[in-house]
Amino acid sequence: MSVVGTLMSRNLRLFFRDRLGVFFSLLSALILFLLYTLFLGSSQIDNLQESFPGVSRGEVKSFVDTWMFAGIVGITSITTGLGAMNVFVEDSSSGRFRDFLVSPIRRETLIVGYLLSAAVVALIMTTVVLIISLAYLFFVDGVSFDAGQIATVYGFLALSCLAFAALSAFVVSMVRSAGAYSALSTIVGTILGFLAGAYIPVGALPEGVRTVISALPFMQAFLPVRQEMTADSLQAMTGGEPEAVSDLESLFGITAAVGDWAVSNTYVVFILAAMTVVFTLLAAVQIRRRIS
């Protein structure tokens, strides 16, 4: 276990030493923040205020901001695990695997070191972004959350970090060069906001596109986080009117359905847990082949 810890420490140091790599792992979240701060946020607030003329602009802004930051922390839990696998790509392309192979380190230990370090990086970065998000919402919008809400949000984010770190490890294990990895990171960072329904409210998309996005784990992983973070601001904005709450939850991807089937939080836990197990095993097999 001490060897695994040493490998993890080494991988974490290499990742955080590369400041540009750390920045790019957060690029999707930063893009989302800038889009809503500079452009989309004001438009969303204006549209909602037309629908709820008796509600103050501050209450509408609180809802839009909580929805936005739920997307930011959710995206962070996905992209940072992918960013952490840059260490694996560099080790592979530089030929360091040959050094590992002649050392007394077991291949299984090496594999666990890469997988766990990716998950730990995702969890650390997501924790930091969550703290910043909660601080922004408190000081700018006056929105606060109780301990139970924060614990629920963090629990789902932690599970998301594990699941998508495993998925990232599996995908990156098939990448052979730093150039291919950079291209992959760029593509993922570009389309993730759309696949997760973060850039544009999913309810504003055509029905067929909305159904496809709702069926993807990227969107589903965000649901419990959005539900907890927008719960109070949504109730305040709508006055708790059930029909208005239901319509806005559907429009902003706070709830999701595939056909007549509603995606439940229980299912989200199941799919994220299944992803963690399945892609960890697949990634381990693939990485073992690469370092053999």
TrEMBL record:
Q: Where is the ABC transmembrane type-2 domain?
A: 20-290
Q: Which UniProt keywords apply?
A: Antibiotic resistance, Membrane, Transmembrane, Transmembrane helix
Compartmental location = Membrane
Principal location: membrane
Identify the stretch annotated as signal peptide in this record: none
Q: How does it sit in the membrane?
A: Multi-pass membrane protein
- Which InterPro entries did the record assign? ABC2_TM, ABC2_TM_bact-type, ABC_2_transport, Nod_factor_ABC_transporter
Coiled coil spans: none
Q: Which domain of life is it from?
A: Bacteria
Q: Give the transmembrane ranges.
A: 20-39, 67-89, 110-139, 151-172, 179-200, 267-287
Q: Give the protein's recorded name.
A: ABC transporter permease
The opening ranks of the lineage are: Bacteria, Bacillati, Actinomycetota, Actinomycetes, Micrococcales
